[in-house]
Amino acid sequence: FYISLEELRKVTGCEQKLKQLGEFKKRVLDKALREIDECCGVKISYENRKQGRTVIGFDFVAVNALGIDLTDYDPPHELVDRARRFDLSQTAKHRELTPEEKAEYETLCANAEQMTLDI
After folding, report:
1. C-alpha distances in angstroms, 76 versus 8, 35, 49, 61, 100?
2. Is residue 70 scored above 60 in pLDDT?
3. Using alpha carbons only, how large is the chain's radius of gyration in Å?
4. Is the pTM of this model over 0.85?
5. What CA–CA distance (Å, rounded) separates 54 from 48?
6. Residue 21 confidence (pLDDT) above 60
7. Is the confidence at residue 69, as pLDDT, over 80?
8. Among 89, 30, 85, which residue's Cα sits nearest to residue 58?
9. What is the rounded distance in angstroms from the CA atom of residue 47 to the CA atom of residue 55?
């Protein structure tokens, strides 16, 4: 998921504090992610999203570090499709999708578009 730097500063109350990005990351962002990992067992990593040379936000990835078995959990079909669509879009940033992946991605996008039209 993506959060803009402006939004992250606003929700953490650091709009006028820690103006240097390195200090903000060290004192707020990295500290919060470390606490989430220690308390909840969810590892969250992030990458800077830049516009030119300026950091405008962060792309986060959360991974369940506890290895909870989700086989008994039956998530809504739309949620599974949305997660798979996101996964494929992230994969496409790092390598070219296979023809099968491209076809799956296009199908998922078409299904999502149809669902919005049905509403």
Report:
1. 29, 30, 30, 21, 24
2. no
3. 18
4. no
5. 9
6. yes
7. no
8. 30
9. 10
Average pLDDT in the 37-42 region? 78
pLDDT at 103: 92
Q: Which residue has the tokens 């990295």?
A: 30
Residue 64 pairs in a beta bridge with: 42
CA dihedral 10, 12, 17, 19 (to 10 degrees): -70
| Residue 108 burial by Cβ neighbours in a 10 Å radius (0-12, 13-18, 19+) | buried
Helix (H) or strand (E) holding 58: strand 54-64
Between 70 and 99, the more confident residue is: 99
